[in-house]
Amino acid sequence: MPTAAAVIVLGLVAAALLRNQREVLALDSGTSRALGMHLGRDRVPMLGIASLLAIAATVIAGPLAFVALASGHAARLVTRGTIPPVPHAALIGAIFVLLADLLAACAFPVILPAGVATAVIGAPYLIVLVIRQSKVRQRG
């Protein structure tokens, strides 16, 4: 557990140092290339940092994977930015897990793990999000 916490701290520092590259990579490929990014080379460190942070968070918090996917997208929708702000995403994720745990404990005759409730609530949201993103990419 201390190792996972150290990985999270180091990953957040690395993500903060690479903020400008993250913002440019969040744009479409043509714009990113026009701004001087080498997409293949510059995406690898970002994906590595994101993967390490996701792995470390899962080690600490448990397998509530949907929250990690949904809270970033929800924060981006709330702030209307291209990149989700981390504090907003963390707050939305924490509120979602709290509500899911409350629902799992109170709404059913058997107490369910919070991960089950997040999956039941999150799967339809994720499907809608994927459909919406594919429609946006087809138009653009």
Can you walk me through this structure?
The chain is mainly α. It folds into two domains: 1-62; 63-140, no CATH class. 81% of the residues lie in helices and 0% in strands. It has seven helices and no strands. α1 (2-17) packs antiparallel against α4, α5 (65-79) crosses α6 (86-106) and α6 packs across α7. The longest helix has 26 residues, at 114-139. It is globular and about 55 Å long. The N and C termini lie far apart (43 Å).
Total domain units: 2
Report the sheet-strand fraction.
under 5%
Mean pLDDT: 79
Give the terminus-to-terminus CA distance. Answer: 43 Å
Task: Label the structural class.
Answer: mainly alpha
Number of strands: 0
Oligomer: single chain
Q: How many whole angstroms does the radius of gyration measure?
A: 17 Å
- The shape is globular
Low-confidence stretches: none
Largest sheet: none
**How much helical structure, as a percent, in the residues?**
over 70%
Q: N-to-C SSE series?
A: HHHHHHH
DSSP helix count? 7
Structural topology:
Blueprint lengths: L1 H16 L1 H7 L3 H6 L4 H23 L3 H15 L6 H21 L7 H26 L1
Helix pairs in contact: 1-4, 5-6, 5-7, 6-7
For this entry, give a set of tags.
140 residues; mainly alpha; 7 helices; 81% helix
What would you say about this model in short?
This protein has helices spanning 2-17, 19-25, 29-34, 39-61, 65-79, 86-106, 114-139. The chain has 140 residues and is mostly helical.
